[in-house]
Amino acid sequence: MYLSAVSVAGILLYISSYSMTPLTWSLAFTFITAILLLNHYTILLPPSGNSLSMDSAIYLAILFVFGLDMTLTILLFTSLIYAIYQKQVVWWKHLFNFSIYVIMIVCTYQSFLLTGGKLGSITVLNISSYLASFSIYFLLNVILIGLFFLLTQTESLFMLIKGMLKETISSYLITLVLSLILVLMIKQQVYLGIFLFSSVAILLSISFRQYFQLYQEVSEKADIDHLTELFNHGYFKNLLEKEINKAKKAGEPLSLGLIDLDDFKKYNDLHGHLQGDRLLKHFGAEMKRMAKSSFTVARYGGEEFAVLMPGLNQLEAYRFINQLRKQVNDTYFEGVEVLPHGCLSFSAGVIEYNLEIYNSTEMIEKADQAMYFAKTKGKNNVSLFDTENLPVDTFQYQREMDLLEQQLRIFLYKDVYTYRHSRRVYEYAIQFSKKLNLNMADRKTLIMGALIHDIGKLEIPRDVINKRGKLTKEEWEMVQKHVIWGREIVSTDRELHDLLPLVELHHERFDGKGYPYGFSGYEIPRLVRMLTVIDSFDAMTTERPYQETKSFTEAITELKSCSGSQFDPQLVDAFIEVIQESPTVDLEKMNHNKPVQVTP
């Protein structure tokens, strides 16, 4: 309706204002040619790339020297030629643009005459007429275009006009000055004046295009990391702030992933910095290849990378990052076999923006916390930010956790299976303690005990612990002693004595057939009974040298079948709910079918 109203008003105003005064057609075609050239050679203005066209300066100069009929005739011809030349633009846009020019030109002319202006003369006495009429031209343009954007966007008219004034007032002042200069040139020598004016405008356009291109190249270089050719830290932080504002207004999801290459320092130390740079470049190329066109991938610093994923919720972002992780694991790069996981891997944290997040800095910090949490699970992991778990459970007992981390790190080199297993059990313990609403003291004991429960395996020879196939009787007895050895290791530190039952008794069974003491039922502490369920579930679903891996579905079936014999039945039901409710459970693990193999 608005487009139609403006278009009809412009056409009617054109018909009513045009008096068919005889024209000098050679002069008219000269002006038409000049306007078409200047419409093609617009002046690009950095940094936003707004363009400044000199056609308004010519229209105003013609209006102030030759009057309304000449101006409207030239406007009609240039609009028709431009519409034919720009066929890809829909017809109603050409009509709307033509009508706006008609309204501005006619109203400017009338205001010029009403304020005492005289055609063809510029003096100090009538300069006010030029300024008044030009103000009308400028304000009509802002209002007519502003109303169009008001109807197609959500901002208020005041904000739109304020923004347009801020961006266009300087270009309109330039147009005013140039139109007055052209009036003076036309009065002296009309054809030479048009030629010189057009030539200067075209040269300015070419110069500004080169300047703008150079500006863009410099800006791009400032935003790009020279090694990986991804965006750099500064660009990413600025973009994140903009995307947060956009997501806030539109109510659309926005997720952030922070990625840190595992054990990159070790790779760098072994192969040298040049090879380390090649690895970073390779990883950057993999990220760029797998990312969607709407994603933004950046090198955040060192071996840290960031992915901004507009349109994806937290779970969708988790799946994408996890898919990237698996792809990276399966893509060989020279020298990665020396790393603990035997392949290139990373740890990542994922978070989705919500209204409780204050700014981009807070969002990055929370993604970083989730990434750190992924590392504590044995690396080569992706973790979602959990507002309830991460700040309290992961970081509250940092001093004790650091102490356990130092002792447990030895597993990374001796028994990577046990190391990863302990990390996963630790994660399950966090979720399980939350499910059962444990008090803070019990939660601390369970989580820390889960992390260190198998530390006694440090005393078992490597060839036994990594043996494929059935263990001998002597070897099995040695493995069973790991709970006693673990107790001896932990008991050397008085601050860890609360963990002794979990380390020593986690292989006891509810029916009394476990080891080392054969405790049964509620003789076994509740936290130990909880750890037994977690430990067994992860052992069943983890690849091990001496047993075939079960799917999550198969392991849940096994838990149910052993409920009341091996496990506390109440705790089994609660833990199965934890597994089924976890947003990060891999559906492939739930649905993967393998022959069920019961391990003695």
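the 2nd protein, sequnce then structure:
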Amino acid sequence: MIRDFKAQIFCRETNLSKREIDTADPIWIDRIDAFFKQTSHLPPDGDPMEYAAAFEAVYPQPRHRRQYINDAISKGTPCFGHKVLGSLMAAGKVDCVFTTNFDPLIEEAALSANAILPVVDQKRPTVAALDSADRAMRCLNESDWPMIAKLHGDYQSTSIKNTGSELEQQDIRMRHVLVEAGKRFGMVFIGYSGRDASIMEALTAVLDAPSPFPNGLYWLTASASRLLPSVSEFLKRAQLAGVDVAVVECATFDELSADITKTTDLPQPLFDLVMAGRPAPRLVPVQLPAAEARAFPVLRYSSLQIEGMPSAARRIKLSQSTTSPVVRELLKEKGVRATVAALGRELAVFGKDREILDALSSFGATLGGEIELNPAQDSWAKGLIYDVLVRSLARRIPLIPRFKRAGHSVVIASPRDGDDPERTRRDAKMLSNLRSAYNCELTGKVPGLGLPFQEGLLLKLDLIDGRWWCGFEPYTFVHIPRPEVTKDEYLPQPEVANRDPMAARPYAGGDPAGDWRRERWAQRYNRNWAQIIAAWAKLLTNTEDGTTRAFGLKDGTGIDAVFRVFPVTGWSRPGHHHAYFDRTN
């Protein structure tokens, strides 16, 4: 009911038709949940007042709430658990049932169970709702069992307790019956959340009696860790009052009922009735498919398998300890192109040996052979290879690598005045396939805003099923000037702070280009995405010998980072025992 109410409120607030959404679809569930997390229409998810607030928000009038429940109840039929409970009542093994539900399924199951017994053995239940609480009082005073008490009314009642104010003002006579029953019997709580303050107050009042819940108190739940605070507090107070308290984890009402039938002697007619209503077993023999899985892929991944990567880097020894940021800044000041990871008084480095030693002379740098790289076990080695992989992919093609702590990226290099015409033509030729896939310019300025944009990729390095993969996500980077930094520095918008590694700090002015970017990508469907992914894969792996090098060093001048990246993206395909990635085209 809560899910349905939320969907109706969501459609009302977003001007959507209920037909346009599917509340069983996880994508729509996430969207609806995200909507309520960002608004104040309802209490937080899981709040005790969430149900009441949602019901009243959708159906403010009591008659409309009754109609909603009536429509829902008309579709219900007793489940296996109802049949077991009804048989237990007919057999005289359950005296009293309190329920906050509105449906008549418990009494229907009890009547069906009694119908197969001789008249003299029948124990038909008395049903008492909020507008007939005197029946419950009579059953209590005369010990006339069994009884079913509807604490929130039933769907035929003129008073149904289902909104905040109504739930707070529980009928005083029905509450008295609940309290007195707690003083006489033990109680088993099945499938009850404890959301209703009035009911929890009544149960707590039982604890003031000389011998509350004399036969124990058993609270059944799918997970003990998910009990509401009000329930946990009640159980704690009950223990302090000397009640035998137990929290029992049980997956479903049907499973509990099945266990009860194994330990309880029911008259044979009732036992046969219950067994006839068992649900079909979940584990049944099935014919396994004998045909081969389809040979063609079903899903394309924006990822490239790395068939070869550096296994060792240059080891440089230092006379004093340092950190990677310090060394990188020093190399940058000296104009030295290198990729480095600091390990105390040692460095793992890719680049020209002589230039690196000269730049780090103040640290007493000396060559120390090579250092083995194990990125699967050492995070520093994975970080070093991640850095140098991005550099190698961007080399010799018009891409600019950008290194951020949250994740690296590459962007298309924008043409500049004064560029060599031959290089400009060469770059345009290399990007022609990508431009055709996008069907628009890859760099430029946002219309109406004048903010520069560049198409690019967010890059990742992942080990999946024993293979290394370079994942890439196409993204449009819009560069927004920061008021508090120099005019030449730009930062993307906060809207993509979790996806864009460049968006480490939010832009105070919001995201002026957000609508433009969303519109730019909104009409790109599967076919367009496939073309864009294929074009990026071809650009990143467009080398003559199938390898990419970070620096292009000559032999003997230093250790270069050499990668072999397979040019075909990963694919998934159906099967019963296969890796999640298959590079076969």
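The first strand starts at residue 96 and ends at 99. The two ends are 47 Å apart (CA to CA).
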